Amino acid sequence: MEAGNPLLDDYVLSLAASRKRSALPSARGSTSSRPRVCFLPTASGDADHYIVRFYRHFATRCDASHVSLFRRDREGVEGNFAGHLLSQDLIYVGGGNLVSLLGTWRAHGLHSVLRRAWRQGVVLCGPSAGSLCWFAEALTAFHSAPFRVQGLGLLPYSNCVHYGAEPARREEYRRFVGDGMQPGYAADDGAALHFRGKELAQAVSSRPHAQAYRVEPIGGEVIETPLAMTYLGAPVRELASA
Amino acid sequence: MSEREVVAEDRRTILALGGGGFTMEPGNPALDELVLSLTAVREPRILFLPTASGDPAAQINAFRARFGGRHCVAAQLSLFSLHGMDRSLDEIVAEQDVIYAGGGSMRNLLAIWRAHGLDKLLIDAWERGTVLAGISAGAMCWFDGGVTRSSGPPEPIEGLGVLPGSLSVHADGEPERLPVWLDAVRSGALPGGWAADDGVGLLFRGRQFERAVSSRPGAAALRVDAVEGELVRQRIEPELLGVGGSPALESDAIIELRQVQRLRQSRR
What we know:
The complex is a heterodimer of chains A (242) and B (268). Chain A is an alpha/beta fold and 242 residues long.
């Protein structure tokens, strides 16, 4: 949902459409040919402006919905939100505060629902806190110096976002990985890491110079290896099957 | 972390609102003025926690509108926005005279406070004399339990247990809560406690209920206990607060002090 730049949205929608085609008819949840996309704005406290932005970007292109965990009594999907999430082709988790996100999810049983969705092949994506949450460990910064947080652990790595934009974060992440945090992946704004199962399939970007890195300790030193990036603005072949 | 000393039980204060205050009564400042009067500090620092609703701008604006022009230092604490805060939560909490928790989802409120360790900081602040106030979810959270609509239909939920007993809010405004609460008290799922109408505040000193106040004529509170499986109900008549202040609770000395302070500020 970058302003004026639909490249990453196009990319995840292509993954959702591909998932839609491959899913068993019984798992499709609806007869519509459009992919089903559900927005989880929890990390922002279900901020109205963010929900509006989601619909603005997605509503014309897919069956868009959102689940609100702050206004469950009066807005969004009512009742069986677990069933709703499991019937999606794509679950889009918005950015915000990672600690608040994970605490709220745990209180509503979302941890296990999202794990099930992932196992069933629902595409999961998100920027910032919506990226960090899928990993075993994440570096987050809030009301203090950056610190380590345990995520859902679907991906057995660590993750750091806003890498190029916040030099302090980059430095702290490298220090944490050197101190025993799991090796992992760091991404600049506009860079995205696409995993199939637990393996990195490719790194893509919506900005020509956005970069992602593998960060790991090698021989007592923390090594930052730039990943080969596919810039989505250039002609790209077979995105969905990459 | 706080440099403030732990205070005696009877100097620990919580005002639990069944409804009302700046988020529900834009034209009636009586309960919010009472909140400010509960601290003896001349220019109290008041911190709003809009966590339970996800920090909505409307609540924050209402808080600013109500307290911005009064003789206090008003600020809000966001647990969602990433920017603008470079101080630790314990530093921020420790310097407050009043902490006011807003309404919304009690389940989310407690989960998020616990995830950040804020629940412990707030209880610590209460033990050191910071006045705690709250409406709806932000009122029930201090008790052993309450009735929440966090998942849609009303259901019992455990609270922080700072205050003994349970609280049910909006007894008149959301009548569907009351039967759920009464059933929970009868069955023992929740301990006995209070139900408060919109506009009613329950004032606690330490863990003792002191009195009920109200910003609306006709509003009341209810004390309910289960005795051998039967509910025993007792209506509590609140003291009606005058619009524009609470002379009964705010001492003349503090009012005068605030006036002097205002004068001195305006001369600067």
